[in-house]
From TrEMBL:
Residues 7-155, 184-341 form the Type I restriction modification DNA specificity domain. Belongs to the type-I restriction system S methylase family. This is Restriction endonuclease subunit S. Pfam families: Methylase_S (PF01420). Keywords: DNA-binding, Endonuclease, Hydrolase, Nuclease, Restriction system.
Length: 352
């Protein structure tokens, strides 16, 4: 369907009514949700509205609109906005996502908005039929996003449960669950005994747009570079920063930042070691970090990291299972990120 009519410039008070939240403490427990600026809080036995609305913070968090499905209650720091005739509440929710709310902050302290300020904000609005088509598109996209988010979270929980079952607990030499015909005790080995460990040599700004090879830094994202220095199969570990300890499985030729550790020449199954390091290293980083300091990894922390290893045959069984699960988790994460990028693109290009 094609819409050719121009969008009209209107003040928000022409398309919505701003309502105030109220204190809920006098109410009893029930099944009606109470929302604050951070989202759902608890459930009570009374409602403020029996029609859907859009929540926006009066004080505190003022730039995180919420879609409020009726019936609901909101606290006094959260306005709820209901639609007027010839306006669609779901379209209003989308409009609220592209408004730069911090621009309208009225306070020098805790961020604040007033009814008057919100009412006077000018925006462009199409006819109700086009509003309806746009909101259906975005809400369908949101449902798909939520589906992939749930799948991603469920797979992450499955992985966490498997790691607890497939690896020995503290002071034990065998895991709770094992593949059939594997009965030997696991051996304790240092990471430096089963892999060669070194660091990259480059600055983080050595990355090149559209380079030929992967470039691993201390972040989650992989960059590109034109000159390789390592060849997989390898594991890279972020040595400092907010994502210290984050690991990648690196294959083919690649390069690395000077604070990124590169593991090669494995004497054990790489996928198994990847999971075992993921079990042990975060705890080690936490033990070694000092209050107030940004955590970081030193070479000895890795070379001396104690791992439990079964026979190569059992390593390969466990490693294969975890590699398949990691690939599935990565797939859903990529889909999730692409859907988020698509939504962002559509919000930027379908509104005036």
């Amino acid at each position: 369907m094609t819409f050719l009519r121009y969008w009209e410039r209107k003040e928000l008070n022409n398309i919505l009514k701003i309502n105030s939240g109220r204190d809920y403490k006098q109410l009893n427990s029930g099944n009606i949700p109470v929302y604050g600026t951070g989202g759902y809080m608890l459930s009570v036995n009374d409602k403020l509205s029996d029609t859907d609305a859009v929540g926006i913070g009066r004080k505190g968090t003022i730039d995180k609109p919420l879609y409020l499905k009726a019936p609901f209650w909101t606290v006094d720091t959260l306005f709820y906005c209901t639609s007027k005739e010839n306006s669609d509440v779901k379209f209003i929710y989308l409009l609220f996502q592209i408004i730069n709310w911090k621009r309208y902050d009225e306070s020098t302290g805790v961020p604040s908005l007033s009814k008057n300020t919100i009412s006077n904000i000018k925006t462009y609005v199409p006819k109700i039929k086009e509003q309806d088509h746009i909101s259906k598109l975005f809400f369908s996209l949101d449902n798909t996003l939520q589906l992939h988010e749930r799948k991603y979270e469920e797979l992450a929980l499955i992985k966490k449960a498997l790691l607890q079952k497939l690896f020995p607990k503290n002071d034990e030499v065998a895991p709770e669950v094992r593949y059939k015909n594997f009965n030997d005790a696991w051996e304790q080995r240092k990471l430096g005994e089963v892999a060669h460990i070194e660091t990259g040599k480059l600055d983080a700004n050595a990355m090149v747009e559209n380079g030929k090879y992967d470039f691993y830094t201390s972040g989650i994202k992989k960059y590109r570079i034109d000159i390789p220095a390592f060849k997989g199969p390898a594991i890279t570990i972020a040595g400092n920063g907010a994502t210290v300890g984050y690991m990648h499985l690196a294959d083919g030729e690649f390069n690395a930042y000077q604070r990124t550790y590169v593991l090669t020449k494995f004497l054990a199954n790489r996928h198994f070691i990847f999971s075992e390091i993921g079990n042990k290293l975060p705890r080690k980083i936490q033990q070694e970090s000092r209050a107030g300091n940004i955590p970081y990894i030193v070479m000895d922390m890795l070379t001396d990291l104690q791992l439990f290893l079964p026979s190569i045959a059992e390593q390969e069984k466990v490693g294969e299972l975890l590699n398949k699960l990691n690939s599935l988790i990565t797939l859903h994460h990529r889909k999730l990120e692409k859907l988020k990028q698509l939504k962002k693109f559509l919000l930027q290009n379908m509104f005036i």
